[in-house]
Amino acid sequence: MIPDQHFPLHSESAVRVVLQAIDIVEPDLFINLGDVGEWTSVSSWKYKKVKRPPLEYQLEEIDREIAKVNEGLDLFDEVLDKVKCKKKIMLAGNHDEWLDSFVETYPYLKGYTFKEACRWDERGYE
């Protein structure tokens, strides 16, 4: 069970230790408690005192952050696949829900919800 990775602002040494622990323990169940991403790109705090720019200017930053979060998840999936973990569960933390809130503002952004952007189904997460 792991909480609060906050990719791409994560602690690389902490992630390395967790990956080593997974490799040693070989769990049958893995639960990610959320806050997988920092999601600064869609934080409501980012534009609290300034006007939000047009969507086309925001998407490039959002896409970069999605790629970084997925790179972090790839690290976990690689070791979980290696140890043949049978069940993986993903929960959304408040930071992850910022991405979903952003999509609520722009509902035509297919594929940008936390679940879709981080490819839960493809990765085998419930």
Can you characterise this structure?
By secondary structure, the protein is mainly alpha-helical. The protein has one domain (12-123). The chain is 49% helix and 6% strand. It has helices at residues 12-25, 55-82, 94-105, 114-117, 120-123, and strands at 29-32, 87-90. The chain has a two-stranded parallel ribbon. β1, α2 and β2 (87-90) form a beta-alpha-beta unit. The longest helix has 28 residues, at 55-82.
Tell me the distance between the termini. 14 Å
Helix/strand order, N-terminal first: HEHEHHH
Please bin the fraction of helical residues: 40-55%
> Number of helix segments?
5
Q: Biggest β-sheet, characterized?
A: 2 strands, parallel
Write the layout of secondary structure elements.
Blueprint: H1 12-25, E1 29-32, H2 55-82, E2 87-90, H3 94-105, H4 114-117, H5 120-123
Parallel strand pairs: 1-2
Descriptive key words:
126 residues, mainly alpha, 5 helices, two-stranded parallel sheet
Short description:
This protein is mainly alpha-helical. It has one domain. 49% of the residues lie in helices and 6% in strands.
